[in-house]
């Protein structure tokens, strides 16, 4: 236990330690201030602006910014869909007889949506479905582009709080280019080199046929794995080159590669809180948000570790010693498996390293709750910052009622109009997740995907799929047979709403805040940069989460745990 918690503590210490320099760097990049990469990247940026016809000085209203974001996502979806449909005509490996999963139109559209929304929900096995060129040209490029677009929206949202009496919140295309050139590309290149050094393959060779000691033949998939691995985590995408994702020894061969992958998931989203404080001139408020994230992260880690490290109650007759190792890699053990499950479910990155379907009921409830809460603990790249601030605004509203003042956050008034936007945002996730989950559990086509899992476990499995899609996370409980027209269509709807519905509400709200002035802080103002305020936010998370999802959790993982 001590060794596990030392690992957890080391991870959190590095994330928090890197959050400040990374956040200050992001603030400089998107303010257009000078950085050490400018001599190399400025000419490239100017060239891209000319190529795309972008006028950097022409800023956008919230509506135009959102339209550009949606247009970019739709174009990315269509291009990737077309590539997936013609992939068998592409040259190079793997050989056709290894591609056992047919790329049907519904699977291709679901996959295109998932990568264009950073969900990377995979109803297929990559090594038996996709050409090398499809992985490198289609999926890798979308990991960069969709991740960069999400970061751009997060920065635009912050500008809504930073600006006063402004009709604009930035230029989407300028923000996108800077996100790609100054943030994602440099880190991904360095990270990919580290992965190759540690043994992650980067090749286009045919699949290897190995002869085992038992005299059998085993096919070992190859491919340009390193190109996909770092950016899938950095861009909070998560779709693996192989079916078992980060459990595969090619994707995650050493303890260092696993640790680097988790840092790639968490550091940039965590640093967005520091960038928020820097850009708004309220540094302490940014640290309070980071503190809220860390506190909730530790709480989830504690519950999941407690559930998975204890000997499984249902195997007591077998005298099992130690934690629940079903569905976990022996080389990772309980500690790495729990840490990865909690980080990936918080970070909107489904880069799992163990089969969550085999977790204890209360263990799997932790990643499920993390996704249900809507990316408020670190969250996706860019999307996490507006997720945590939305719940913070609910806390501000409740706090304002307590002290009898008009709710305000960082000097921005939360009036009836803003409150309605926040309310719709908070209700959208339960509406989509619970609504689609209910349909799946009564429709014949939905029940067909559950296979042998019925009862509370089957309910958890269905809700988990839609929570993952809505949170643009992409991980699954693995026993769901999701490659059908019903599941491809319904998870696709959840992914689109989770990406564009949530971002649209966030940007509209940012536009309203940018148009406001800033109230002076008085003795009657609700302090928004104190430990007490952080506790108010955490309390609000618990109340809102329970109101939205407690019945589903009670009928699913909680009931299953009580049955054991």
> How much is the average pLDDT?
91
| H/E topology pattern | HHHHHHEEHHHHHHEEHHHHH
Strand line-up of the largest beta sheet: 1-2
Distinct helical segment count: 17
Number of strands: 4
β-strand percent reads under 5%
The radius of gyration is 23 Å
Gross geometry: globular
> Percent helix among the residues?
55-70%
Q: What class, by secondary structure content?
A: mainly alpha
Describe the sheet with the most strands: 2 strands, antiparallel
First-residue to last-residue Cα separation:
24 Å
Uncertain segments of ≥5 residues (pLDDT<50)? Answer: none
Key terms:
564 residues; mainly alpha; two-stranded antiparallel ribbon; two-stranded antiparallel sheet
């Amino acid at each position: 236990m001590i060794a596990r918690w030392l690992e957890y503590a080391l991870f959190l210490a590095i994330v928090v330690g890197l959050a400040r320099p990374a956040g200050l760097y992001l603030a400089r990049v998107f303010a257009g201030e000078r950085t050490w990469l400018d001599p190399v990247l400025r000419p490239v940026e100017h060239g891209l602006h000319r190529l795309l016809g972008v006028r950097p000085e022409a800023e956008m209203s919230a509506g135009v910014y959102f339209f550009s974001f949606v247009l970019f996502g739709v174009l990315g979806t269509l291009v990737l869909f077309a590539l997936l449909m013609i992939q068998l005509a592409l040259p190079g490996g793997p050989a056709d007889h290894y591609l056992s999963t047919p790329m049907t139109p519904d699977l291709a559209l679901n996959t295109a949506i998932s990568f264009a929304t950073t969900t990377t929900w995979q109803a297929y096995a990559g090594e038996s479905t996709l050409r090398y060129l499809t992985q490198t040209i289609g999926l890798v490029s979308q990991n960069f582009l969709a991740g960069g677009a999400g970061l751009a929206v997060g920065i635009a949202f912050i500008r809504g709080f930073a600006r006063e009496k402004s009709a604009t919140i930035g230029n989407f295309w300028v923000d996108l280019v800077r996100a790609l050139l100054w943030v994602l590309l440099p880190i991904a290149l360095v990270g990919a080199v580290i992965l190759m050094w540690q043994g992650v393959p980067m090749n286009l060779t045919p699949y290897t046929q190995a002869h085992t000691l038992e005299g059998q033949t085993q096919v070992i998939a190859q491919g340009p794995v390193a190109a996909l691995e770092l950016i899938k985590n950095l861009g909070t995408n998560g779709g693996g080159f192989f079916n078992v994702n980060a459990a595969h020894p090619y994707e995650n061969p050493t303890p260092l590669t696993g640790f680097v992958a988790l840092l790639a998931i968490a550091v940039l989203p965590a640093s967005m809180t520091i960038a928020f404080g820097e850009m708004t001139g309220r540094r302490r408020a940014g640290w309070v948000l980071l503190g809220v994230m860390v506190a909730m992260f530790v709480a989830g880690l504690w519950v999941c570790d407690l559930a998975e490290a204890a000997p499984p109650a249902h195997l007591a007759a077998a005298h099992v010693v130690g934690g629940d190792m079903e569905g976990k890699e022996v080389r990772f053990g309980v500690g790495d498996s729990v840490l990865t499950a909690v980080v990936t479910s918080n970070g909107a990155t489904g880069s799992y390293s163990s089969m969550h379907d085999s977790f204890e009921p209360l263990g799997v409830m932790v990643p499920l709750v993390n996704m249900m809460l809507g990316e408020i603990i670190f969250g996706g790249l860019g999307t996490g910052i507006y997720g945590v601030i939305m719940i913070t605004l609910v806390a501000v509203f409740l706090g304002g009622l307590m002290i009898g003042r008009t709710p305000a956050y960082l000097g921005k008034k939360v009036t009836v109009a803003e409150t309605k936007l926040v309310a719709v945002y908070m209700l959208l996730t339960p509406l989509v997740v619970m609504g689609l989950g209910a349909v799946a559990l009564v429709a014949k086509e939905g029940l067909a995907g559950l296979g042998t899992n019925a009862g509370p476990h089957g309910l958890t499995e269905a809700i988990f799929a839609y929570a993952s899609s809505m949170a643009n996370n992409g991980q699954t409980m693995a026993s769901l047979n999701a490659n059908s027209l019903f599941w491809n269509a319904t998870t696709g709807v959840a992914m689109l709403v989770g990406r564009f519905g949530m971002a649209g509400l966030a940007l509209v709200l940012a536009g309203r805040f940018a148009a406001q002035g800033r109230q002076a802080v008085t003795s009657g103002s609700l302090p928004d940069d104190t430990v007490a305020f952080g506790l108010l936010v955490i309390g609000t998370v618990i109340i809102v989460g329970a109101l939205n999802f407690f019945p589903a959790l009670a009928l699913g993982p909680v009931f299953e745990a009580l049955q054991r």
